[in-house]
């Protein structure tokens, strides 16, 4: 894009001139790269997803021309059934990024600052700036763990990614309950984008805590990153705030294909569990292989690992991997600029990474 | 939904407690209703749309698990080709409602108020409240026309639906140029959701005016309401503001099915033109039939008409039509509460409406 002159800038809203947007992981358009950089699932979605979209197409004359259900009721019900809750506890959105954006607007525009860790999902500061949310950033400890006691101060809300990203480290439910109980007047959001790969979900706490919002996505554990379906689970008085925000922004965020495909995914629990287990098994093997080569790998409950090499610059390592056709995510930021975030691939893909390191880069 | 207590309300952001969300037209879940209430197209989308989604499905293992292109470059290029402009002038979003939301944030959060008519798309006041945009509402004249001279006062932006909704009346390009020239320091947005049914598009003015944003949708003229694809066309320094806003809210709003299907629609210009002409022809016939029965019908350039009966309450008429299986849109609002907005159906559907009025309700 060519440079925008200050004269042209007069058309922008003043606050928009200051925005520092989120930068998503690279989606390369070249083929044959081993893409371990955006935490996608190496396996396809349930075959029932394809069947469900086929069924929409067979009826396309009648449905594509018509607006979708603005409430996506079928999808809310499918999620509710799978999560063993009532559909009145479910909110859906165009990817969990949209759900999180609505969460920031619905709950966090407060006098007091929102609390979150220094190392976490890098969209949180972006949402905060976008909606004018005050923030107080709390450092993880030296082992990259969340310090629960830090979350017992005055605040206008709390958001914790669990397992955290990009660290991959999970917090137990007792720690989350401690945060919930210490903040009875604040909304506590647990962002569980990666929870299905071995961490404990806080959905089981929703009935007990009127201040809890759990956010999840179909992008990782359900292999539907290409579809854009995220959701939140909370008591109805919190869901109502999300609906008020959504209906002040976009009435129909979920298209007919997304609704049908996601419903089919939630209906196929056996496939879901099997694929998650495959990723977990592959992760444990990869962690062992990398540890054996001297890499430091943080304890992961996610579909990625966060790893470093004591005697090699992480940025250089990422560049050398890329030269060999393997993309991983490198964050050139304080505290984590000597780590790489590596998505778990299939066993064959992970072996290619291990072999490239062992026989080539570190040989 | 059960009532929310004031104690539960403490969790909501204070500004969200005050929101008055948009209420979309009813999407009834019962069958066999003649649905003339949400301005959907009576014809299916291009057969190439179905083929394009089929092609995605055939490759689903490789694509659904992967994030879509966050820039939706293929879609921007398809729109640019069809509109005969450069792709750098195109912004895409999850329905034109999302595009309009981003427009309000990107350009209209200003010291001066945004100008728009008293009778227009009822989402504009909702966006204004949501983003804290000041507004100054300018009445249409007694013939429900926009008074161009009113749009020559200090403002922080202007938005005009053209053809206007729910009035169906179009403004000519010379009037729009007058507004653009009178406001060289404000962004002027022309919301052309219905432009393809006989009005003149301002896209031809984008190269000439650095303050013009044109917004369109695939929901009406391309029969893709079920898909959620809208777009804006403007010079790159304005597109950049929309991208900054979008990337501060949701990086990947367009899913892989939506991108593929919309590209196929824009590639099939012949089908598009033929379907639009069919709707226009049906509209002219319906207007003549209703006028012959004594209804007052405003001059329409849209895929709907705005009509009233001199001796019958419009709200009652809507209710009586509904009892007979025909849904139209009734707005119980000042100035327009004696009009009905009626979507143009197929000739057969329109005849059913005419017959029901002639032989039954008005018999």
From TrEMBL, chains A, B:
First-level EC class: transferase
Gene3D superfamilies tied to this protein: Aspartate Aminotransferase, domain 1, Type I PLP-dependent aspartate aminotransferase-like (Major domain)
The protein's required cofactors: pyridoxal 5'-phosphate
Domain Aminotransferase class I/classII large residues, every copy: 32-357
Keyword set includes Amino-acid biosynthesis: yes
CDD domains membership: AAT_like (cd00609)
Catalysed reactions, semicolon-separated: L-histidinol phosphate + 2-oxoglutarate = 3-(imidazol-4-yl)-2-oxopropyl phosphate + L-glutamate
GO MF assignments: histidinol-phosphate transaminase activity
Assembly and interaction partners: Homodimer.
Record-given protein name: Histidinol-phosphate aminotransferase
Taxonomic classification: Bacteria, Pseudomonadati, Pseudomonadota, Gammaproteobacteria, Moraxellales
């Amino acid at each position: 894009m060519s440079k925008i002159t200050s004269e042209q800038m007069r058309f922008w809203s003043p606050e928009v001139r200051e925005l520092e947007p989120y930068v998503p992981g690279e989606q390369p358009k070249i083929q044959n790269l081993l893409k371990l950089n955006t935490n996608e699932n190496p396996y396809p979605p349930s075959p029932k997803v394809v069947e469900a979209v086929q069924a929409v197409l067979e009826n396309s004359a009648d449905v594509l021309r018509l607006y979708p259900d603005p409430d996506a009721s079928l999808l809310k019900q499918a999620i509710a059934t799978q999560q063993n809750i009532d559909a009145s506890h479910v909110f859906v959105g165009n990817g969990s990024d949209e759900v999180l954006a609505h969460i920031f607007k619905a709950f966090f525009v407060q006098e007091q600052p929102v609390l979150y860790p220094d190392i976490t999902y890098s969209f949180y500061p972006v949402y905060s700036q976008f909606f004018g949310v005050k923030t107080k950033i709390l450092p993880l400890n030296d082992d990259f763990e969340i310090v629960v006691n830090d979350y017992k101060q005055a605040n206008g809300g709390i958001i914790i990614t669990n397992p955290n990203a990009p660290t991959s480290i999970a917090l137990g439910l007792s720690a989350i309950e401690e945060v919930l109980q210490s903040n009875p007047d604040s909304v506590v959001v647990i962002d569980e984008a990666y929870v299905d790969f071995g961490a404990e979900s806080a959905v089981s706490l929703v009935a007990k805590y009127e201040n809890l919002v759990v956010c999840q996505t179909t992008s990782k554990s359900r292999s539907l990153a290409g579809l854009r379906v995220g959701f939140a689970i909370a008591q109805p008085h919190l869901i109502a705030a999300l609906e008020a925000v959504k209906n002040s922004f976009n009435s129909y965020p979920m298209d007919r294909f997304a609704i049908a495909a996601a419903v089919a995914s939630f209906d196929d629990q056996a496939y879901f569990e099997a694929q998650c287990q495959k990723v977990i098994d592959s992760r444990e093997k990869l962690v062992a292989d990398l540890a054996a080569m001297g890499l430091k790998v943080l304890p992961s409950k996610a579909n990625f690992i966060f790893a470093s090499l004591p005697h090699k610059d992480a940025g250089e390592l990422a560049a050398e991997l890329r030269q060999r056709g393997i993309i991983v995510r490198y964050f050139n930021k304080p505290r984590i600029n000597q780590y790489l975030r590596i998505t778990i691939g299939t066993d064959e893909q992970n072996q290619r990474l291990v072999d490239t390191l062992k026989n080539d880069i570190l040989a």
